[in-house]
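Lecture 7 notes: from sequence to structure.
We start with the chain below.
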Amino acid sequence: MPGIRESRARRRAAAVRYRRRRLVALGLGAAAAAALAVGLAVGSGTGGGGSLTPEQTVRAQREAEPVPFTVSVSGDLLIHSPVWARALALGGGSHYDFAAELNELRPYVAEVDLGICHVETPMTPAPPAGYPIFNAPPELADGIEATGWDVCDTASNHSLDQGQTGIDDTGKALDRAHVRHTGSFPSAGAQRKLVLMDVHGVKVAFLAYTTDTNGIPAPHPWSVNIASAGRVLADAKRAKKMGAEAVIVNLHWGGEILPEYQQEPSSGQLALVKKLTASPLITAIVGQGPHAVQPIERINDNFVVFSEGNLISNQSPEAGLPASSQDGMVVLLHCVADGRGVRVQNVTYVPVFVNHPDYEVLPIGDALRKGEGDATQLRDSYQRTVSVAGRSKNIEPAPSKLP
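Predicted structure tokens for the same chain:
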């Protein structure tokens, strides 16, 4: 799609401009003076003259010219039978068009600096299947790419629904769509390879884990990342050694750590999050799993998005489930890399609603302005999400008020 290609071209152009500015600054501009000043201070303090290490050079450059960037994260791509049936209809009965269901999300995915998605269900060429043992059509990966996501996590309580074959085929589908992924793996070697993304010259590591797999045993120890504080921190330490300046962790919360549809974080969630945010290795934690929005909080001075809720699914009151199961949010982490490192400065979240029966995901503010969807349903959904996700000086919904 031209819009996706154009937005990605803009991101590539921005990265090129940043690198050019960095080279010019290091050679001629104010950043060079700052770098020289830092170098002289470092040299005089250590007896090593005025030379800078590469790390000190980058730090001096960032101090003089901070690099802002935005990371988009969102909830479950939970492909129930009606969701893929609608995608097939949108494809004229000859192929699955998931992009049409996700199209309205593009401004919050394709047009940010780094788009991260969560693939809840495996996708294989076998006949598609819904709850309780899922199998999504591989064309879902094409919809992910068309929407503009750069990287996805594949660690969930449903990762093993189709066994190791499901893990392998899911990875292949995302590879064909040129979308990077992590969380479940085809081999021990693949699990050891961490995902580092270059965002305007800033190296961002993305790590993904699930707390459980619905009781299905893993075919191999490396098939899927299982969350524990020790495991996450060990991987974060490796990422830092590989040059990561920021580490974003996705935690998928399965039924062993909290009941589905619970909007208050459980004691198990809080215990794990507190251990992780106590470490300087972690930049931010995001998550999903209970099929409901949970709060966005600041713990140990790190932002934590406990759950973004569902992004797309067939869950709703019509299915006998809470109204909150039809709600979700796209969360935008506004980051900056400067002389102190990389941190999240503030968070904006975009409440979204899965419109039935067309299964189009609607950003609520945009939909109300365009006259799309049922206004009462949209307003009720917005209020539910904001009442749980919260508002504060550094955490705000978008829009802040409905039109």
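Points to note: The CA atoms of residues 110 and 148 lie 4 Å apart. Residues 2-64 form one domain.
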